[in-house]
Write a structure and sequence with these properties.
CATH topology of the largest domain: Aspartate Aminotransferase, domain 2
Order of helices and strands: EHHEHEHHEHEHEHHEEHHHEEHEEEH
Number of domains: 2
Number of strands: 13
Bound molecules: pyridoxal-5'-phosphate
Shape: globular
CATH class of the largest domain: Alpha Beta
Structural class: alpha/beta
CATH superfamily of the largest domain: Type I PLP-dependent aspartate aminotransferase-like (Major domain)
Largest sheet: 7 strands, mixed
Number of helices: 14
Strand content: 15-25%
Helix content: 40-55%
CATH architecture of the largest domain: 3-Layer(aba) Sandwich
Length: 345
Amino acid sequence: MSKITDLRSDTVTLPSDGMREAMMRAKVGDDVYGEDPTVIELQRRVAELLGKEAGLFVPSGTMANQVSLRAHTEPGDEVILDAGGHSFNYESGATAALCGVQVRPITTETGVFTAAQLDEAVRPPAYYMPQSGLVIIENTNNYGGGTVWSVEQTLQVARRAHHHGLPVHLDGARLFNAQAATGVSVKEFAAPVDSASICLSKGLGAPVGSVVVGDRQFITKVHRFRKMFGGGMRQVGFLAAAGLYAIEHNVTRLVDDHKNAKRLAEGLAKLDGIELDINRVKTNMVFFKITRSGFDSHALLERMRKLGVLANPTGPMGIRLVTHLNVDKHDIDTAVSSIAEALNR
Ligand SMILES: Cc1ncc(COP(=O)(O)O)c(C=O)c1O
């Protein structure tokens, strides 16, 4: 077995030589004192790209969501989001442990909910009920299949949320994938919401980091919670430089990841023992269900691993594969052949 094709996530990407060069040359300072010029530039650049007043660099997408959530709500509030949402399911219970809020999940097929569903989830102002405090949408939606929330869907939900007096946070860990899939700018996607976060460490290929954006007052609040949650960092311009490089060099190429995801889906859809809806592949994620008897995701993943292909389970019979800048067309074709072999053993 030669190369491992790692399709577990777009977070597994390794920094390129150009990115490493940019990191090495970065001008740095103590960012807790607000003196790191590269961090300041990254924050300015991302805020500008998303059309918001200010930005704040944080170590992870999880912290980006949680400091935003904490800044928008008070303990005891309820946060309305998709039942498969990342901040609800994959952030170690931080909504409860760090923010003291509870979650009001909306069940969806693809991670996208409607204004009518939001209306149903909003609590009436009864003193004995939790109070709705925030709406979160995730674009692209990870466990909904890499789905894009269109600007129109975002607008409708944001209008309804604002009508109820609720702010909207956009978990845009993969917002640049939504841009690549539609040609609609990240600024247009972010316009209807009050705050947004983007990840530099996913499809954009940087080793670390996310940026939260919003108005100045919100970012001042988020700044305080970043420190409280342990995310104040010192000479972190080295990492911000990777982020700036990623924005400069790795945004337009995301369309290649989407083409590779389509190619992968088309290859896999032809295999017996797999159920896969190609029409649901919109960005860089491919989900399938195993229908072959005698198999489950654990068994298939183990066989795939032995043949050099890594992916993640999404349940007893489900598997997710994610394309990214360290896999090319050739790797995709090899992965399809290996998965076919794994299924036929
Ligand atoms: C939609 C979404 N939001 C947030 C995160 C959290 O990012 P991190 O792993 O940097 O904490 C992820 C991670 O995969 C994600 O998919």
